[in-house]
């Protein structure tokens, strides 16, 4: 064997898995398709990032109608987390149970919140999360405070918090994996959707680099994995990848797939062979199915005579409509601040003339409304001749429309007479998940409650693929917690002495 464990992907899931396994002293190799992000002049250039898409991968997928589109994913050490908003929220306790929504009922999880709570705590410590969980009445039971105090509101955001309270809402501080002082020292911008090249955000790369220090963890970059080889015993016998124009393979008794919800499913499907003609881990026919992508909208609220001087802004959230619509009806979702939208960002993303975009952005308070997308069998990833197709069947949209409507009412009551909204489409990867769902029954799921594939006992999946539901909060912390839980299980079952 070339290693004890091979991990495919260095995003939140792969990095957290490496962190869980590193103290064991086992030889761990992380295969990453991309290279490290290096500091450069485009790091805080809004036009380059949002207008030119200079950091995007350039890959193309097909939608359900066969039309090509750019998916907005990234291939770097740390994966999409290099650009994430650093929000680290726990799923609510109810999210692990079946929940009745306007357009259907979620299936529930094979584990409970209590099962994952210790791993949530460990993940918050690993990513050095800052926050004040006690401010949020929907925050689930926890045994301790967050590791660090919340990032402070800027003066205009502190005033906004008061105005939101004044109209009956319960704004709470966002839990953030962020070193705000380091971030701002390298540029006076928000971090949301900006590349992390200064270690201001705690992302997959920062966690992985610490794992390399703590154990025998090797990161191999530029490795495009294209096939998993299966032996006669049904176990993964080798990982095939291409690096520097050469085809290579690596072997290990344990393989962890953490390439992201779309690419992990695509790799399993592309690894089909005579014994597994529909793809690996797919005896249930669930690989690639149940794709979810949060229903999201940007909501800009402004008063023509009031300016917003905030630089980063992203410190507040509201869960007033998380468990119901405020009147006992079905859940609507979560609302949080977007990173501050500036004139160049708005011009690049909306097509507005620069002077109009600048005028709006200087006065806007920018929100991110997020509602749960429900799992559906026909919402799926497929692969044909190496081409990925994503037929996303958006669901629960009526709940999202109701959330945006409620938010607009409250924002006008809070002193913002002009409120604009714009939904995000499939080109924005709004927390893709669900394509290799976790479950107890191998006939209806891909992995068990520890992320082990039902069909291949030495293959684990450790990314958003395994999420049975999307909930309505950012999934990063849940991915990390599941990876830590899975990593401990690997140590106890695969390497027990």
Automatic annotation (TrEMBL):
<comment type="similarity">
    <text>Belongs to the GMC oxidoreductase family.</text>
</comment>
<dbReference type="Pfam" id="PF13450">
    <property type="entry name" value="NAD_binding_8"/>
</dbReference>
<feature type="domain" description="Glucose-methanol-choline oxidoreductase N-terminal">
    <location>
        <begin position="205"/>
        <end position="295"/>
    </location>
</feature>
<dbReference type="Pfam" id="PF05199">
    <property type="entry name" value="GMC_oxred_C"/>
</dbReference>
<protein>
    <submittedName>
        <fullName>6'''-hydroxyparomomycin C oxidase</fullName>
        <ecNumber>1.1.3.-</ecNumber>
    </submittedName>
</protein>
<feature type="domain" description="Glucose-methanol-choline oxidoreductase C-terminal">
    <location>
        <begin position="427"/>
        <end position="483"/>
    </location>
</feature>
<dbReference type="InterPro" id="IPR007867">
    <property type="entry name" value="GMC_OxRtase_C"/>
</dbReference>
<dbReference type="GO" id="GO:0050660">
    <property type="term" value="F:flavin adenine dinucleotide binding"/>
</dbReference>
<dbReference type="InterPro" id="IPR000172">
    <property type="entry name" value="GMC_OxRdtase_N"/>
</dbReference>
<keyword id="KW-0285">Flavoprotein</keyword>
<keyword id="KW-0560">Oxidoreductase</keyword>
<dbReference type="Pfam" id="PF00732">
    <property type="entry name" value="GMC_oxred_N"/>
</dbReference>
<dbReference type="GO" id="GO:0016614">
    <property type="term" value="F:oxidoreductase activity, acting on CH-OH group of donors"/>
</dbReference>
<dbReference type="InterPro" id="IPR036188">
    <property type="entry name" value="FAD/NAD-bd_sf"/>
</dbReference>
<keyword id="KW-0274">FAD</keyword>
<dbReference type="InterPro" id="IPR051473">
    <property type="entry name" value="P2Ox-like"/>
</dbReference>
